[in-house]
Amino acid sequence: MRRTDTLTSLFFATFFCCYLTAFSQANDDSLIIANSERLSVKLNKGLFGLSKPAFGNYATLNVSKLDSAVIKKKTKDSSYIGAEISSEGTDFDQSKFMTIEKTKFYKLSLGTASGAAEAVFAIASVSHEKRQTFLGKMMSKNDEDKDEILDENRDVPGIIREGIDSIVWKFFIDDFVSGSGQSQGPFSNPASIAGGFLKNEHDSLYMQTYSSFEADLVLINQQGEHLAALAFKQKHPTIWIRKNIDLSYQQAIATLFAVILSIKDY
């Protein structure tokens, strides 16, 4: 009987804690909704995967890859030699496992009510791949599935400069996975982000990747205040940015969201 009472008390204590957490989350998110205008996003997709999002009083003027050299590093991890025997004969597979690091640089200009903001950012990828050797290609009867990407991680670091002051914002998008919006078929996957931040020399906002409403990402300051939200996984994204925060914050957040939306299917 005593054990039953203990389990019952534990259940209600856990339930109460979960309820308080959910209530607090909903209350914090309600401040965003109450103090923001719901902004529908027009992506304006380009031919090469980069989009030029427009929302509210903001419009992407330009987004492009910089002419700077691509930083690329290849490291051989191990080798593999195998053979596949079938009714068609024996097919040899001589491959190598590699770690490939690659960094490309981009620039985005966002038109705002007070001028323009500019973001310079990089897409830094680290992938583990299986690559067929030259000798393996010569010996193989069938090259299909010999080269493959085993896993890939992409991070997006960058800076934002605004026209209204000299404050420089730094941002980081952790483990960014592109959506398959350009692929065909019913099994396309949405873009995803593991986390990240937006900060200047005085303040720091971190990304929370869930919300009590339809947003996929919420920006929260050091005081725990929810300042903005972004629903980017949907076909038609939506943005909320609180109007009762400093204009510099609004524009930096809008520029960060424009970067995310510009590369979400890239």
Category by helix and strand content = alpha+beta
Elements, N to C (H/E) = HEEEEEEHEEEEEEEH
Number of helices: 3
**Broad shape:** elongated
Oligomer description: single chain
**How big is the Rg?**
24 Å
**Helical amount among residues, as a percent range?**
10-25%
Mean pLDDT: 81
Runs with pLDDT <50, length 5+? Answer: 15-25, 181-185
How much beta, percentage-wise? 35-45%
Signal peptide: 1-26
Keywords: Signal
Would you kindly provide a written description of the structure presented here, covering whatever features stand out?
This protein is α+β, with helices and mostly antiparallel strands and 266 residues long. It has one domain. The protein is built from 3 helices and 13 strands, in the order αββββββαβββββββα. It has helices at 2-34, 134-139, 247-263, and strands spanning 39-40, 54-55, 58-65, 71-86, 89-112, 115-132, 148-162, 168-174, 195-199, 204-208, 217-220, 226-231, 238-241. Strands 1, 2, 3, 4, 5, 6, 7, 8, 9, 10, 11, 12 and 13 form a 13-stranded antiparallel beta sheet that branches. Strand 5 (89-112) and strand 6 (115-132) form a beta hairpin. The longest helix has 33 residues, at 2-34. The radius of gyration is 24 Å and the shape is elongated. Mean pLDDT is 81; it is low at 15-25 and 181-185.
